[in-house]
Structure formats: C-alpha cells, structure tokens
Amino acid sequence: MSDRISVLLVDDDPDLRAVTASFLEREDDRIAVETAPDADAGLDALAERDVECVVSDYEMPGLDGLDFLDAVRERRPDLPFILFTGRGSEAVASEAISAGVTDYLQKRGGTERYERLANRIVEAVEKCRAERDAEQAVEQFRAVAEGASDAIVSIDTEGVIRFANPAVESVFGYEPAELEGEHLATLMPERYREEHRKAVERYLDTGERGIDWSNVRFEALHRDGSKIPVSVSYGEFTVDGERQFVGVVRDDADRDRHRAFIEHTSDVVAVLSSDWRFRYLSPSCERVTGYAPSELLGERSLDYIHPEDREAVEAAFGELDGDLPSAEYRFRTADGEYRWLESVGSERIDTDGIEGYVVTTRDVSARKERERTLSRLREWTRELNYTRTTEEAAELAVEAIDDLIDAGLSGIHLRTEDGDRLEPAALGQSVPALFETQPSYDRDAPPGTRAALAWNAFRGEESVVIDELSTYERIDESSPAESLVLRPIGDHGLFVVSSPEPRKFTDTDILVAEILSGHLEAALDRIERESRVERLHGATRTLVRAESRAEIAERAVEAATDVLGFSIVTVRVHDEAAGGLVPSAVSPEAEALLPERETFTPDGGSLNWAAFESGEPRMYDDIRTADALDADTALRSLLIVPIGEYGTIAIGETEPGVFGGVDEYLAGILATAAETAFQAEARTRRLAERTADLERQNDRLEEFAGVVSHDLRNPLEVARGRTELAREECDSEHLAAVEHAHGRMTALIDDLLTLAREGDPVTDAEPVDLGQVVGSCWRTVDTRDATLRAEAERMIVADESRLRQLLENLMRNSVEHGGDGVTVTVGSLPDGFYVADDGPGIEPDRREEVFDAGYSTSQSGTGFGLRIVEQVADAHGWSVRAVESEAGGARFEITGVESA
C-alpha cells in the first residue's frame, strides 16, 4: 500500500478550505488533500476516487456535517470521518459521537489546530489500515483453516493447544473448543509423550529438529481411545513475540470416510474439466438442481448458467487454477427455473479415474432472497427518516411491511393521550375487507380478548409471535388473522403484523418486522421531539424579552408546563447574599405538593445544589432511592438541569421512571434559553448602570466646562486688561512675563474645554476632502518658517470640525518640536493617513506617554494637544500611534478610517 494518505476536505468556506488544505499538506507530506464545497460534491468525490479519510465542516448549505456522515456511512461504513467544526456546543459533539464520527475537533485556536488535525488524520488512517491488514490476515488464515479438510492445530512452547479448526472433529472426535486450552498430549498415546517433550525441549534449546517436519507419520489418539494413523506437517510462527507451532494433520485412514462424506453432503461436490464440463457430481446434485448426476455428466456447465452471469463466473474461475475462486450465479434447474448457487473452487485431483478441478456448490437462494429483502428494508427505513408527521410515518411503515413480507392485515396502533387505548394510526389495505370495524384496543379489556393480548404485548419488551391464533390458548375471541407478530413501538404503541394464513412468517420476516418497528420508534421519537422543540422555541423567545430575573423565571416555568407538559416545576436562582439557590418561580402543582424551602445551600444535601455545582443535568427515576430531601413527599421522578451560573430548573412527576432522553434534551434547551435570558438581563442591567455613570460623568464635565469658560476665563480677561493698563503707567520687565503667563493660561483653558467637549462619539460624519482640510488647517496654524508637503488626496468619512482639531494639533506639535525649517508631511495610508516631520523625533520608550494628558517637552506647550488628538480619533472609532518617520522625526499614523 502506498504511504500517501488521500484526504477529502469538505467545507463551504473557500478561503478556510484552501488554508486548511495547505496547512495539512505542510504538516505531513504524506497527506494529499482534495476539497469539496458541500456534502453533495463530497459524495460525488467519494464515488469517483479512493479516499482514506473525510474531514468535514458541520454547518454547510444543504446537508450538514452529520447528515453527510450518515450518507458516507451508507457507502463506506469504516471510512474515517473527522468533524472539524467552528460550532463548539456539547450538543453537536454528543450528536456527532452518537452518529459514529471517528473524531471531533473545533476550529478555534491558532495554527496548532492544523497540527492536531493532521495528527488525528494520520492516526485514524493508520489505525484503519492496521485493522484492515490484521483482519485480512486473520480472515485469510481462518478461511484456509476453516475450509481445510485436514485438521489444523497450533500450540505454544508449553505444548498447550491454542487453536483448532473444525476438521479436528472428523480426525480426532473432539470439537475445536474442547481441544483449545488442552495439552497436545491429549492427542498422543502414552508411549509418544515423553519422547515428544524431549524433542521440543531440544529444539527450543538448540534449534535442531531431528526429524523432517514436512511429513511426520505416527499413531494419534482418538477421543474414543482408539489409535488412528496420521501424517503431520509442522511449521513455526511468532504472535506478539510468542513462539508457536502449527501442525496440519491428515487422517491416512480417512479416504473412505471422506468419500462417504462427499456422497452424503448437502453441498454438491463436482469435478470440472478444463473446458468446463462435468466429470463428477455428488448425489446431492439432484436435490439442489433437479438433475440426476448422470444427466449432467459430460455437459458444459456454463450452458446452464444464466446468460447475464456467465461472464462473471468465467472471470472468477478462469482456468480454475487460482486460490479458492468463488462466484454466485443463477443456475437453470430441471424445471426450467433459475436458482441462486454459490461455488467455491478447490485443488486439482487425479484419482480413481477422475481428473479435473474440484468445485463445491451450495444453494444460496434463501440467502439471496433475504439480502434482497434487507436491501429493500434499508430503502424503506431511509424514507422513514424523512417523515414529518406521525400519520406519515405510520402509513409508510404499514406500506413497507406489506411490501417486504406480504402482510396486508398489518397496522400501527398508537396510545391515546389519556393512555387508555391503542388506536389505529395506519392500517393495511386488507383490513377493511376482513374487519367490520377498525380494530382498537382498550387497556382494561378482559383476559382472552384481542385487546388484552395487544396490551400485554405493548407492555412487554420482546416480540410476541403466534403461528396459529385460532389454537392459541390465551385468546378465545375470533379473528380473521392467523399468523401474528406483535412488536411494541417503545412508549408510542404497538406494531401488529398479521396474515390470514397460519405459519406465514419466517424468522427473516420476524427480523424484518422488528427492524422496521425499531426505525419507526426512532422516527416517532424524532417527530415528537421536533414538534416539542418547535413549540419550545416559540415559547423561549419570550424569555429574552423579560425585564427582570423574576420574570425570566416565571416565563421558564410557563414554558415547562404549557409547552413541554411537565407539571411540577421549580426555577431556583443563585443568590450570593442568601448563600444558595433561592426559589424564584414555582408551578401551581409544585407549590401545592412540595413543602416551602427558602434556600438550598451547599451543605444542605440538596440534589438541586449537586446538579448546579457539577454543571451537569441529573435525572432520577425514583428519588426515594436517592436520599433526596423530598423523599417523603409524593414526588418520585426528578430531572434537574443547571441554568449555567444562574440557577436550576427542577422538573418532577409523581410516578417513577417518567423521564427519558427526550425530556432531558428539551429541558436542556429550555435551560439554555433561560441562561441566555439571564445573561441578556445582566448585560442590560450593567449597561443601564454604566449609562447612569456616564450621564453623571457628563454632568460633571459640563459643570467643569462651565466653570472653566466663565469662572476662570472672566477673571483672566480682567487680569489681561489690568496688565495693559499697568503697561501704560510704567514699563516693567515683569509685565512681559505676566502677559506670557496669561497667554499660556488661555491656551490651557482652550485645550481643557476641548478635552471636556470632544469625547462624545461622532454621529454626524460625512464625506470630507482630506487634501482640502489639510491646506485649510495649515493656513490657520502659526507655521513660522516650517514647510508643508500635502500628499493625502482622498475622500474620507469624518466630522470635519473635529478632523480640523486633530490635524491642527498635529501640525502645531510638529512645528513646536521640530525646530527651525521643519518639513511637515501629510500622506495617505491604506486605511487612513499620517502626519510626519523631519525633526528630532520621539524616543521609542516615550511614544506611548505622549498621548497622556499634561505630557509636554515644550515650555510653551499645554500637554493636552496630543491627548486631544487621541480623543478625536477615539470618537471616530479610529486608532492613532506614534512611530519614527522616514527622516528620523515623529510620525503619527491614524488608521481605521473609512473611505467615502
């Protein structure tokens, strides 16, 4: 076998498909990936090419990953299938494992997930190859041993028999199971045992055989104590490091018995010449084909084979010199009909005047008929999987049973909602003609009636088979049916398969009815589950609209009672202040039945707390056996499902053993919806609290802005006026310093007002010509002897006034810190723009600090200019960072900008 591993990758995302394929082939050069965009294309690829492993996404258009798995399993049951999905719910993982997926991996994570996926692929394929090789080896050995006419036994170095084929019984009188585990001395007369023991020890010590292993003749011991002449050929092999010996034993006195066996065997033993003519036929030929052996001797065997099968037979047998060739074909019998036969070729013989090749043939018509029936059964059960209503599933099952085993009196009888009757949901086409009224069965019908028989079968677990109903001692009511098979359909009802003929149904018919009823039960479970899930989804939509925890709990109880049909329901919410699970909503029946308990605490021994703490659902068929707190009440069945970190939903009934997997599944959906609602309520509450905090903060900022703009600016203007008046009266060098201080205070007040008022998100952005705004800003800034290089020519979406504030502050920063003759460049980025200069730049370890409020390296700077730049960028949803320009100066890059 080639070391190449052919992998089919099915994913509807073309980019992810290409990336995954590339990584897999890079991780292991043995892996060769072929891709398909969906399940249908994947099935086409499987039909056309030899694939050793399938890797499939879960959520895809058309068939999803699990439907694709079902389709693959129908074609290649043992093909490794890995579900590689971005959807990481436990429900999907559980359903995937139940469906028989080889492995299940999630897509999230880094590139290491591809390494894990590649390893899983190689492990799965190598395991499959090893199992296939081992199975082939074992099957080949067993096929040879099981079909051999000579006795074959293997022994270990202690002389213990480890294997014996069926032929040992004809040679020694023992069945294989009787010899396996016994010492080889069982088959040896006393006088040979010591000599044999020494010979084995000598061989194990020295490797010297002493005798020719190919043909050893001696007397063996038969089970009846008689001695039989045998010839044995030996061989040696190793299994898991253990040395073993195999011996092929032929009974030298068995030729007459072998001839007698051939004469009386039910299989036809024939000898064919090289030109396909019969040279010998055993007496069983007449029973199988209708021809006496003498009628076929000399005839060409191919002439009796169906024309459509001759080519296959010729290809299988060729010249009849291969290794155990075999073929199935239709043979024309003496009455002109065709019967299915199976022939297996053996070795060439030349004895007693008979020369040719031995072929053993058996009648396989019954098996072929069973195979055809089971094939049609698979088609019917596949259709059952697609039914959408109870009525549709029942009608299809009745139609199927009539087609498969000719049972026109059959019917599906489902239990009514009150549980008192089995009513017909679908009846066979012959029922109206033979029954005056549609058969239905009351639960309390007296013994001896058909209804009592039906309810007894419904309450059981196995099929009830009656060959002749008229002589059945447990019923004294007449019925048109004679042959009867009654099969319970889980909790749904009863499958009645019947015929007016006695002893109508074979073991195969009964098996077909049981398989079909099992698939019908699964279909009815699915239909019921889907119906309840659909209703549940409608009810749980109201959960997320609830405005409080109490309302969420109330609506969860309503969904559990009104939609799912549970009666005793309690929703408990975890309360840290109370130290446990506090009841938040209770159904009326739970309130009437159960005693009031405020809180279930960690040390209270509550089953609710145990489920909440474990995070896993807990289901109890009878709480009286579980040491529960409510064991002394009428409550018996209990199902507890955690609501994440928020609490639990407890569902109970007064009868034991009520809940099943469907109930747990639906309760889990309700709990998930409730958890989502609790999470939404918590987010809403946190958002409201944050909004209130922001409003209070905005109020404080407005108050601050008012103080700055009025209470500080007015006294500052008075001081500036007084300074001018003082300059008229006297000329002091201190007045210049005062004026400079007044100017710095004015700049600080302007920047503080900008910080206080520029933090709100931008809501009125519109297309802006970045090049025009850059030129306008440069004209309003004191640029001294600086030079502008405007290279940004593009339209962006922004608040123009805030964009001007950002650009002016960056230009002013470059002029103030860039030195004499600095050049300021405004250029474009793929998703934004930048402002750069050729000044001294910013030290790398301080590039984050420059955006802090109050940070400045200039004597005239306020320290708020770059903080305002960052604030304006944040308000737009942009990002800003300081880096080194190409000329070694400072460069500020603004990214995340939307193009107009």
Automatic annotation (TrEMBL):
The modification 4-aspartylphosphate is found at residue 57. Residues 6-122 form the Response regulatory domain. Its EC number is 2.7.13.3. InterPro entries: CheY-like_superfamily, GAF, GAF-like_dom_sf, HATPase_C_sf, HATPase_dom, His_kinase_dom, HisK_dim/P_dom, HisK_dim/P_sf. SMART domains: HATPase_c, HisKA, PAC, PAS, REC. Residues 325-376 form the PAC domain. Pfam families: GAF_2 (PF13185), HATPase_c (PF02518), HisKA (PF00512), PAS (PF00989), PAS_3 (PF08447), Response_reg (PF00072). GO terms for biological process: regulation of DNA-templated transcription. It catalyses: ATP + protein L-histidine = ADP + protein N-phospho-L-histidine. GO terms for molecular function: phosphorelay sensor kinase activity. PANTHER family: HISTIDINE KINASE 1 (PTHR43711:SF1), TWO-COMPONENT HISTIDINE KINASE (PTHR43711). This is histidine kinase. The lineage of its organism: Archaea, Methanobacteriati, Methanobacteriota, Stenosarchaea group, Halobacteria.
